[in-house]
Amino acid sequence: MNQPPRALITGAxxxxxxSIARHLHRAGYDIILHYRHSSTEACALRDALNRxxxxxxFCLQADLDQMEDxxxxxxxxxxxxxxxxxxxxxxxxxxxxxxxxxxxxWDKLVNSNLRAPFFLxxxxxxxxxxxxxSIINLIDVHAERGxxxxxxxxxxxxxxxxxxLTLARELAPEVRVNGIAPGPILWxxxxxxxxxxxxQDVLSKTLLARIGRPDDIAEAALYLAQAGYVTGHILxxxxxxxxxx
Length: 245
Description:
Elements: E1 6-9, H1 15-26, E2 30-35, H2 39-52, E3 57-61, H3 67-80, E4 85-88, H4 103-131, E5 134-138, H5 151-171, E6 176-182, H6 196-204, H7 214-226, E7 234-237
Parallel strand pairs: 1-2, 1-4, 2-3, 4-5, 5-6, 6-7
């Protein structure tokens, strides 16, 4: 009997990560939910998915800012069996205006948005090669046009964009590597991070004049997971935001 395909989604307890997990699960994937602090939400989602299909989901905790946790997460998955899909979704996002940036800011934003995705991809490559699987990286429209007051975040996402293109070459032909560049999907949870005026400015530069849904990103992830002849592609799901300078 064939086993269901298996996906690891980082930062999967809430928001976009949880939506990706639910979509992939409905499509028949078994799910490994990674979380850092959101244990309550991760366990609730795991239990819901297991009620729908018993034994189809489990959780792993790791702080992706810490290399020892990245190594432990990688080892746990390699010991647990096959892997068909890695979705690098976990991300830190907050402003770092020039003149205020310190080493801790740099490390936090680069580690979560770039370093962890690279080392997870490298460490899990043997499993993905064996399954002829794929990697999907959650990038950002601001990887190409930096977001004002967010230079470190923008730099990290630009690195993730280049990592996607580079790994598509390095890991071919066995492993496909693609990215999704979301536009305005969910406003940041910290209200002070993005004012109402700033939100309206974003919408005024979005052709569809509204924010998207987490399900828009999840549907794109499912497409890329199943698109067997697509690699090295970054799919903008941004309501037309990227057409503005």
